[in-house]
What we know:
Blueprint: H1 3-26, E1 31-32, E2 42-47, H2 57-69, E3 75-80, H3 81-87, H4 92-100, E4 105-111, E5 114-117, E6 131-141, E7 150-159, H5 162-178, H6 180-186, E8 190-193, E9 197-203, H7 205-224, E10 228-229, E11 235-237, H8 238-244, H9 246-249, E12 258-260, E13 263-267, H10 272-279, E14 291-300, E15 316-326, H11 331-348, E16 354-360, H12 373-389, E17 394-398, E18 407-413, E19 419-427, H13 431-434, E20 439-440, E21 446-447, E22 450-459, H14 460-471, E23 484-488, H15 494-506, E24 511-513, H16 520-529, E25 534-538, H17 540-545, E26 547-552, E27 557-562, H18 563-575
Parallel strand pairs: 10-14, 16-17, 23-24, 23-25
Antiparallel strand pairs: 1-2, 2-7, 3-4, 4-5, 6-7, 8-9, 11-13, 12-13, 14-15, 15-22, 16-18, 18-19, 19-22, 20-21, 25-26, 26-27
Helix pairs in contact: 1-2, 6-14, 11-12
The chain binds one RNA strand through β6, β7, α6, β15 and β19.
Amino acid sequence: MSDQELKLETMRHSASHVMAEAVVSLFPGARLGIGPATSEGFYYDFDLPHPLTSEDLPAVEAEMKRIVAADLPFVREEVDRAQARRLFEAQPYKLELIDDLSDESLSIYRQGSLIDLCRGPHLDSTGQIGAFKLLNIAGAYWRGDERRPMLQRIYGTAFATQAELDDYVKKLAEIEARDHRKLARQLDLISFHEEAGAGLAYWHPRGGLMRVLIEDYWRRQHYEGGYDIIFTPHIGRAHLWETSGHLNFYKDGMYSPMDIDGQDYYIKPMNCPFHIMIYKTRLRSYRDLPLRWAELGTVYRYERSGTLHGLLRVRGFTQDDAHIFCTPEQIEEEILRVLDFSLNMLRGFGFDDYKVELSVRDPQKPEKYAGSDAMWGQAESSLVKALTARNLAYQRQEGEAVFYGPKIDIKIMDALGRPWQCSTIQFDFNIPERFDLTYIGEDGRQQRPYMVHRALLGSLERFFGVLVEHYAGAFPVWLSPVQVVIIPISDRHLDYARQVEAELRSDGLRVQVDARPERMNLKIREAQLQKVPYMLVIGDKEVTASQVSVRLRSGEDLGKQSIAEFGAAVRAAIAARK
RNA sequence: GCCAGCGUAGCUCAGCGGUAGAGCAGCGGUUUCGUAAACCGCGGGUCGGGGGUUCGAUUCCCUUCGCUGGCUCCA
């Protein structure tokens, strides 16, 4: 952490203490949870007799301003456990924290009327807190545990200067303006329906067209990348899910079974067991491997109602799934290949900035994991080698691997610098074992293949939501549902407009003529709001010159061009995936 | 699932005990117009669903569904 970051974090942490003092003075009897700084600001958790609403925030903020203006010093003291227990005797959550700390001497901070158990550091005094603002309130379980009491959390943020705070507030407004839930409605892409069920997305014609474009690109890339594309059913017998283990370790994510001829069938939450079925249709030789099988597989998972969020968290979604079956000797090359393939795919959609995480097992608890030490060792080293070979910075996360294998997660960074988890490349040491997958090796004996599970876009729904937010709805030309809107100034320009339309259509462009008896200004405005990349204004001058006037959605006026010239420019932009 | 808030016309929102309103959109006209909203008129809502309190509920209470912000979890 840089000095500057530490300073900011310290200030935010101090601000959270000031907020605690303000809340305690406004709501006597408040019990304090914890109040740390976060990457964006700070929060404090309270157990209050009174349920907080956003209407309480101005009063808290005003009280905080008073405390800041009073410039109260933050005073650090060291106390022993007994003293600490006495000081916080009315604060059960603090007592629990004290009991969990092993140190004999504990630090406390005082400022004004507040005493808090806290490691620090803090500012010298409340007056050093810069510009701050309370943002929202939310429920939060004590220590993140849903079996513990639900506390009330107030989120806020603070910056050294008012200008920085203003920028941050502006950024929040920008995030809101890009919200895919709002844009998906405005651009007529996607809807959800209360009467039809929560967390289930409906793709409208324009959204559907974009999805087709995404899928077509995806399929082409996969065939070029050495994958085969398969299709599997949506439901499978209980027996399958018992074998795969899903009925043991993933039951909470699965929907109740349906009865078909006296047998339980489950709708699939994952595609892997189905791909396995295909693998097992014949004896596989080492000569057949690697097999790379991809599927746009639609799965359904139970997600708790409170976690649903537009397209980013739904109950039914299509994964761009694939399973790679290979020999241990092939694994390094396969990992490198899938890593390159992923990054290339993401770049195709305009994502050039990534955050990579390598999740490995907890070395202390080898018994928690499926697969042998040797397999984990080889898997991990092949992942590391691939990352190193491509010079990718990554964060190693000890103990974050799933029980069945280590993995690489790639988070794409959007235009606002927010990370989104989409791609994941996971080893699976569990399923091949459970389904007794084999191939005949060079030695003529049965061997166990390695299996790698990977999704690049993650789910089409989430990826689409991320695309909307990344581009704020102004998609690259190749993805824009309507690429060109032709705007005749008056009815007498319609014939020529139709001619331009036909010509551009024959070039494969998605073109529409706005033939309504409306004014040009209105048509421009609406095309602009629909984020159409090109607007062609056609009046007397254009008809006479056999040209078109090109306006971009940026507002830029490119002036007059010939139809051929314009068509070529658009085709070039499409080819460059701009 | 849990805590808090919110569900009023297609959208954005006002009204909050006496039976519903605006702007935009839609529809019908008039206007044929040079780079982000022409003008006039009309229709449109069992005020999310169910139950209760009340002479009377969009307004108060309960319940249910959905949404929002979080917690938890993940593609």
